[in-house]
Automatic annotation (TrEMBL):
Region Disordered, annotated ranges: 72-91, 330-352
Coiled-coil blocks: none
UniProt feature, compositional bias: Low complexity: 80-91, 342-352
The keyword NADP appears for this protein: no
Keywords associated with the record: Membrane, Transmembrane, Transmembrane helix
Name of the protein in question: Proline-rich protein
TM helices/strands, residue ranges: 98-118, 124-144, 177-198, 204-222, 231-254
Species whose genome carries this gene: Prauserella cavernicola
């Protein structure tokens, strides 16, 4: 240390460093350098009477001072003798590991459900929560009863925490500053999704209590997670769910923009018939006949249809089989109009006459079933 540091401050800092010995050395050095000016100020105020004892009267013991630094700096609590003997292996770590994995796997599953929900707005996927919520709840119950100390002492958690602090420290500090706005955004997104589900299907109203509960968790548990790490088992799943739902909604909206409207009245599409052959469609309706009229409204016969590149617009032709009096496919061509197939019980205009009306089960008619009004 610097020779300009008074002995009392050096001794006090030495005990602070010992109390923080479980943290990474680089972080301990950073903490010591951060608190040194404050301790020098205290020692300067005490003058020649500056000793560890006099500084303790004003600041508390170096150990309690180190504990305050842990609390304000979001560092894990100092390990006790009990945790120090069981932190590496053994049955005592199994419940803590299960609690961690319940959070990790539960959040991952919630992400899948959230993305599926947002991308299709199908409330049926919410039934998956009947399995996911109890899994997360079991881990939450453990940390609520035992605290986060058993989890914090797991070697993998220590390694993850150290990595995040050394590699992503600035980003984490920025996220903490944005946290209040994030929790409000979570509640807004959840309310929006609930509204979209109800608009799409009235049955989705039974899922409203779930979204209300999640929004309440976001607004209540989210801001308190910084001071109570047990609430991670509520805030992390909600955050993952909202992020996944948001990503799914973006996918849903992008698909809606690219998808052609089914209500467009002049939407001819290429499709296949029930037998796998090319067919002519108008919207969702498969066409097997077309009627063509001249400018005076007179129907034309023997009209042949072609595409813009000269290909014949060939579709199935139907007729009646005499032996069975049923409709059958008689070939394929591009000649229109075709004989209209009439089924038993219907007249030439397609009106139902009842089963008592005499008509073969299948009959062909060349009559046009309507009159065309040609616009001027």
């Amino acid at each position: 240390m610097s020779t300009q540091t008074p002995p009392a401050v050096r001794a006090y800092l030495s005990r602070v460093r010992t109390a923080l010995a479980d943290l990474p050395t680089a972080e301990v050095d950073e903490i010591v350098e951060d608190v040194r000016p404050h301790l020098l100020e205290i020692a300067e105020g005490l003058g020649e009477a500056a000793t560890v004892e006099s500084m303790t009267e004003q600041l508390g013991t170096p150990e309690s001072y180190a504990a305050e630094v842990r609390a304000t700096g979001d560092y894990p609590p100092a390990p006790t003798e009990d945790t120090a003997t069981t932190e590496d292996t053994g049955p005592a770590t199994a419940p803590a590991r299960l609690a961690v994995w319940s959070l990790v796997l539960g959040a991952f599953a919630l992400g899948l459900v959230g993305f599926a929900l947002g991308s299709d707005l199908d409330d049926g996927v919410l039934f998956g929560l009947l399995v996911i919520v109890p899994v997360i709840g079991a881990g939450a119950w453990f940390v609520w009863a035992q605290g986060t100390s058993p989890v914090a002492q797991l070697p993998e958690i220590k390694a993850l925490r150290d990595t995040l602090r050394t590699k992503a420290g600035p980003a984490l500090r920025q996220l903490r500053l944005m946290a209040p706005a994030w929790w409000v955004l979570c509640a807004v997104v959840l309310a929006l999704v609930a509204l979209l589900l109800v608009v799409k299907s009235r049955h989705a109203i039974i899922g409203l209590p779930l979204f209300v509960a999640m929004a309440a968790l976001a607004l209540w548990a989210g801001p308190r997670t910084e001071s109570d790490r047990r609430l991670l088992w509520a805030s992390v799943p909600v955050s993952v769910f909202v992020l996944a739902v948001g990503a799914g909604l973006v996918t849903y909206l992008a698909g809606s923009i690219d998808r052609p409207s089914d209500d467009y009245p002049y939407n001819y599409t290429a499709n296949t018939s029930y037998d796998g052959e090319p067919a002519l469609n108008y919207g969702d309706e498969e066409l097997d006949n077309l009627y063509v009229f001249d400018a005076e409204g007179k129907p034309l016969t023997d009209v042949y249809l072609y595409t813009a590149d000269g290909r014949p617009l060939t579709v199935p032709r139907y007729g009646c089989e005499e032996s069975t009096e049923t409709r059958v496919t008689t070939g394929r061509d591009n000649k229109f109009p075709r004989p209209r197939i009439q089924q038993g019980g219907y007249d030439d205009q397609g009106n139902y006459n009842g089963y008592n009306a005499y008509r073969p089960d299948c009959a062909e008619s060349d009559k046009v079933p309507f009159t065309a009004a040609i616009p001027d």
